[in-house]
Amino acid sequence: MENTMNKFVAIAFASAAMISSAFAGEVSGVVKSVDAATATVELETGETFKAAEGVVLGGVEAGKTVTVAFTDGTADATAISIVE
Questions:
Q1: What architecture is the 24-82 domain classified under in CATH?
Q2: Where are the alpha helices (DSSP H) in the chain?
């Protein structure tokens, strides 16, 4: 019985770790610069994000306000949208 309980606890912790790593963050700010060659966007706050494959930077330019969705704990932008 104790072995079954240990397995249950181990599975619960592993599941929680996987779920927490899947969370994403979001930030809005004014674009300071865009480097199309490296697919990076720097906000006026100093935060820099690298656009993930498939994220289009068309229309994203200095002075525009954007919302960046990113994977928590990284600078990988999963979406960048211009705030109208």
A1: Beta Barrel (2.40)
A2: 2-21
